[in-house]
């Protein structure tokens, strides 16, 4: 049997002994590498066909590295897209919130036949001592104010004196803009020479110390306070007859509101200016009114150097912000940049 010749095309005989070995569990020679069954011994192993009987399911190091590389690449492509979508979502939410409060304020001005204003400012400068308010000090809020012509004296109840000021509506809850989304006056983008300023937006709206509260936007002589940053705390004012106020030289309106400076939130001279403050005891100060808005990411803006001037801020807002102007007769935001104040 060992030297038996098998004709070409004939079915090679099956050896009984190897079959018995296979049945008994003994591994055949070259079982996983060659088809030895029925092959003449004279055929060298190097010429016998390779017939794999099983496939390995394990990854090689190269295959694993390729898979990891593809996953990392997909993550690198997806993260910027996700961040962009998240920023767009926050922007859209902010515009929707601003539209809502501006429209309500305009309707209230017409319905109550009184001037109304929306004050935009840092949440830390607003009287909101709730847990939610305390957690949102780095966000911006919008609050409705009503124009009052008489105020009750704090120490003489029933004694009313004449005083033209915007006072926060007691039922008005602050509207908190989404995280990292702030608004600045649209007039901050105006570069024309007007009202005594070579670059009106940079030299008037966007100059000053960012993030610092000053009681007055005007000094005692009525001159603009050069230290106060108008773009962090400003008004949008509606008149019941003419609609949106403004369009010419910026006007400063009187406010009676909370003073967030340290030392003014404690009892002083028998008066409280803090969480339990009587609105009649709040200080009086002025803020400017504008007619447009720029919605922008605050984090990028805050990354500017501390010595950045109004021109640097103006250029950055043009790149990262989106300009709107307020419809005079409805209060709705309309996309577009104004040519002048």
Could you describe the 3D structure shown?
- The chain has 341 residues and is an alpha+beta fold.
- The chain has one domain.
- The protein is built from 6 helices and 12 strands.
- 26% of the residues lie in helices and 20% in strands.
- It has helices at 16-23, 61-112, 131-135, 200-205, 298-302, 310-320; strands spanning 116-122, 140-152, 160-168, 175-176, 181-185, 234-239, 243-244, 252-256, 284-288, 292-297, 322-326, 333-335.
- The strands form 2 sheets. Strands 1, 2, 3, 4, 6, 7, 8 and 9 form an 8-stranded mixed beta sheet that branches. A 4-stranded antiparallel beta sheet has the order 5-10-11-12.
- Mean pLDDT is 77; it is low at 16-35 and 266-277.
Concise overview:
The protein has helices at residues 16-23, 61-112, 131-135, 200-205, 298-302, 310-320, and strands spanning 116-122, 140-152, 160-168, 175-176, 181-185, 234-239, 243-244, 252-256, 284-288, 292-297, 322-326, 333-335. The protein is α+β, with helices and mostly antiparallel strands. Residues 16-35 and 266-277 have low confidence and may be disordered.
């Amino acid at each position: 049997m060992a030297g038996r010749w098998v004709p070409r095309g004939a079915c090679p005989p099956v050896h009984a002994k190897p079959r018995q070995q296979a049945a008994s569990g003994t591994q055949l020679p070259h079982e996983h590498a060659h088809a030895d069954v029925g092959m003449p011994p004279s055929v060298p192993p190097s010429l016998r066909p390779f017939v794999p009987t099983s496939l390995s399911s394990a990854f090689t190091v190269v295959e694993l590295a390729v898979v990891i590389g593809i996953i990392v690449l997909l993550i690198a492509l997806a993260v910027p897209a996700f961040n962009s979508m998240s920023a767009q979502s926050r922007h859209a939410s902010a515009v929707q919130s601003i539209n809502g409060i501006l429209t309500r304020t305009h309707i209230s001005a017409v319905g109550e036949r009184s001037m109304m204003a929306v004050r935009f400012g840092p949440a830390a400068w607003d009287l909101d001592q709730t847990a939610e308010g305390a957690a949102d000090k780095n966000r911006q809020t919008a609050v409705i104010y009503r124009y009052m012509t008489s105020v009750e004296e704090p120490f003489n109840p029933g004694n009313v004196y004449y005083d033209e000021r915007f006072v926060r509506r007691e039922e008005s809850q602050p509207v908190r803009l989404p995280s990292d989304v702030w608004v600045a006056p649209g007039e901050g983008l105006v570069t024309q020479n007007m009202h005594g300023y070579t670059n009106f937006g940079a030299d008037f709206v966007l100059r000053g110390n960012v993030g610092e509260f000053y009681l007055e936007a005007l000094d005692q002589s009525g001159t603009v306070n050069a230290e106060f940053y108008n773009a962090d705390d400003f008004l949008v004012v509606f008149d019941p007859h003419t609609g949106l106020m403004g369009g010419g030289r910026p006007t400063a309106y009187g406010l009676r509101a909370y003073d967030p400076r340290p030392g003014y939130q404690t009892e002083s001279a028998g008066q409280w200016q803090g969480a339990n403050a009587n609105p009649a005891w709040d200080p009086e100060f002025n803020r400017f009114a504008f007619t447009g808005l720029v919605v922008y990411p605050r984090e990028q803006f805050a990354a500017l150097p501390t010595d950045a001037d109004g021109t640097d801020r103006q250029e950055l807002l043009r790149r990262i912000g989106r300009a709107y102007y307020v419809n005079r007769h409805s209060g709705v935001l309309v996309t577009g940049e104004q040519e002048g104040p």
